[in-house]
Specification:
The protein is mainly β and about 425 residues long. It folds into 3 domains: about 130 residues, no CATH class; about 90 residues, no CATH class; about 180 residues, no CATH class. The chain is about 5% helix and about 45% strand. It is built from 3 helices and 33 strands. Strands 1, 2, 3, 4, 5, 6, 7 and 8 form an 8-stranded antiparallel beta sheet that branches. Strands 20, 21, 31, 32 and 33 form a 5-stranded antiparallel beta sheet that branches. A hairpin with a 2-residue loop joins strand 12 and strand 13. It is elongated, with a radius of gyration of 30 Å. It starts with about 25 loop residues before the first strand and ends with a strand.
């Protein structure tokens, strides 16, 4: 049996850059070579006559460049064959075979060969950009979809991606009809080596509108209920989705806001009696949902993940010299709310280390928001909190500076046994 999880089609000409189908053909033009039988784990016997095996070859200083030789069991001996032997069984005109190799840059490059009526495999040039093929796998023939990639040659995509690329420009919203209704997609640049965007499924409601990975802090009201746009779904879901919530910015449902500017409304509830140095949040809020606050690795079982929904003030005021003045505020940068940078957070934590001298002391931290939520949407924001120094460690006492929902367990992934806790 094959020692690789991939399906391969090997040819000496495979390293040639994209050319038209008519230029390169591969066939069985040479007599097969009998090779050292000890190279194979499985002996070539009458019972496995016709079996295909392969050996991967590595080149260069670190072995990042690689290709593969193919062999077939014939009359009691393993014999070296050309690339087509892996894909030739029951091949029909128009079938495709995927040849993969390593180019020395850690990338796997895929080339596609199509089967012709005269029994040759011909290179399918990348100028086609998109393709629907019948390919050979270990499980048999199947329909597969591929898109041309600058680095990877050809990359397999799913049918939805193929249909969107076939019908829509990458700047448009892709709309696909299904048995259940319409599905909507927007393109998003992948953070890897594909060098082409991928279509991400988004949510759409006639009253709430679109909900996509670009819609941070987007809320809506429908039939008297409030919803938020979750950019990373809920639980193990990764698609953006409208989700009902009981937490939403209070300015959206406070009659006192009518007729007032944001600045006037924000300071309505600032305390009349205050002491110098007091810090309080204003009424204007921004809300975050499904935010990961803890991971617990359960011995021999897996990972439990806990999330929290919360709304926090946009502005913070400090009482000094008999009046309230703006002390800190979130800034809305390209639709992303940011209060502190990671450097500022690290400095604050360093300045509030628990020591023997500070045993029992309380440490108060403001909520903070990551500047790049698209990298880790599960930890886009973290709540404000009061910690207490206990035996040299900061222990959570309570969340503060905001309104918080219930901590919810939403994920449980099985994993190898471990016995530690990650915060």
């Amino acid at each position: 049996m094959l020692r690789s999880r991939r399906t391969f089609c090997i040819a000496a000409t495979a390293f040639v850059a994209a050319v038209s189908m008519s230029l390169i053909a591969c066939g069985d033009s040479s007599a097969p070579t009998i090779v050292d039988q000890s190279m194979f784990e499985t002996a070539c016997t009458a019972e496995n006559e016709g079996m295909i095996d392969s050996i991967e070859n590595h080149y260069g200083k670190y072995g990042y460049a690689w290709d593969r030789d193919y062999f077939r069991c014939e009359k009691g001996s393993w014999r070296k064959r050309e690339f087509w032997v892996r894909c030739a069984k029951d091949a029909q005109e128009g079938d495709a075979c995927i040849y993969s190799y390593g180019d020395g840059t850690l990338a796997t490059v895929n080339e596609i060969y199509a089967y012709t009526s005269n029994g040759n495999w011909k290179l399918y040039g990348r100028e086609h950009d998109l393709g629907k093929f019948t390919i050979h796998t270990d499980e048999g023939r199947k329909t597969a979809f591929y898109k041309s990639s600058i680095v990877e040659g050809w990359r397999e995509i799913d049918e939805e991606q193929y249909r969107c690329f076939s019908k829509f420009d990458v700047q448009d919203t892709c709309v696909l009809e299904t048995d259940e209704g319409k599905n909507y997609y927007l393109t998003k640049k992948e953070i890897n080596i594909t060098h082409f965007p991928v279509w991400i499924k988004i949510d759409y409601d006639p009253e709430l509108g679109f909900c996509s990975f670009n819609d941070y802090q987007k809320n809506g009201k429908k039939d008297g209920k409030y919803y938020y746009c979750s950019q990373n779904g809920k639980g193990v879901s990764r698609d953006p989705k409208w989700i009902e919530t009981k937490l939403f910015p209070q300015q959206d449902n406070d009659s006192r806001k009518n007729g007032l500017t944001d600045e006037e409304y924000d300071i309505l509830d600032l305390p009349k009696d205050a002491s110098t140095g007091d810090l309080v949040g204003g009424l204007l809020e921004v809300c975050f949902y499904n935010q990961e606050i803890e991971k617990t690795i359960v011995h021999n079982k897996g990972i439990k993940t806990f999330v929290l929904d919360f709304c926090i003030p946009q502005n913070y005021y400090r009482y000094e010299n008999g009046s309230w003045t703006l002390d800190a505020h979130y800034r809305n940068k390209d639709g992303i709310w940011i209060l502190q940078t990671k450097a500022e957070i690290s400095e604050a934590q360093e300045n509030n280390r628990c020591t023997q001298e500070t045993e029992g002391a309380e440490i108060i931290t403001l909520p903070h928001v990551n500047a790049a939520p698209h990298i880790d949407p599960d930890r886009f924001a973290e709540p404000g909190a009061i910690y207490q120094c206990v035996s040299g460690r900061q222990e959570l006492k309570e969340y503060t500076y905001g309104r918080y929902g219930e901590v919810e367990e939403v994920k449980f992934f099985e994993e190898e046994d471990d016995d530690e806790v990650e915060d």
